Amino acid sequence: MYKVKKTLTDSCFLACIESYLLDNNIEYIDQKYMVQKLSAINLCSGTGVVQFDHIKCACRVINIELNEVKYHFPIHNNYNDGALLIGTSKGNNHHCVRYYKQEEEAKIIVMDPESGDYMIYDKPGFDSGR
After folding, report:
1. Could you tell me which of 116, 124, 123 has the C-alpha nearest to residue 12?
2. Are 56 and 38 in contact (CB under 8 A)?
3. Could you tell me which residues are beta bridge partners of residue 109?
4. Three-state SS letters, the chain
5. Alpha-carbon span 37 to 30, nearest angstrom
6. What is the pLDDT of residues 55-101, one digit of tens each?
7. For the chain, what are the domain ranges?
8. Phi, psi at 60, each rounded to 5°
9. What are phi and psi of 73, to 5 degrees?
């Protein structure tokens, strides 16, 4: 899995999309280009924020189909292809990471665009960020 660090203040979701595009040899678009394209049609802020209401539409604009998956832990094996993006929130802070793998029942490994590296999320921490 390509590890991608966010390049703008709030572009964690777009960094996850960029990582997915690189992994799947889909037409490559970087975060800055996505912001230009999406902000021109009011689907994204200049800092990379894509409001939850606009996520599906924004994905369609960059030729990705996005479906919502209900919360479940452990993560099912059919998400081992890296196509699962996980949104978390605490108060007004929202974050997006990309699922990589699960080696233990109560822990998952994600690509976190905040650091541009892999991080371990445990179930209690994950549950608190829902």
Report:
1. 116
2. no
3. 101, 120
4. CCCCCCCCCCCHHHHHHHHHHHHCCCCCCCHHHHHHHHHCCCCCCCCCCCCHHHHHHHHHHCCCCCCCCCCCCCCCHHHCCCCCEEEEEECCEEEEEEEEEEEECCEEEEEECCCCEEEEEEHHHHHHCC
5. 11
6. 999 999 988 888 877 777 777 777 777 788 888 776 567 889 998 99
7. 12-61, 77-128
8. -60, -40
9. -145, 130
Instruction: Name residue 119's amino acid.
Output: M
The length of the chain is 130
pTM check: above 0.85: yes
Report pLDDT for 77. Answer: 76
Strand partners, 112: 117
Contact status, residue 66 vs residue 55, Cβ threshold 8 Å: yes
pLDDT digits (tens, 9 = 90+) for 8-62: 898 999 999 999 999 988 888 899 999 999 999 999 999 999 988 899 999 999 8
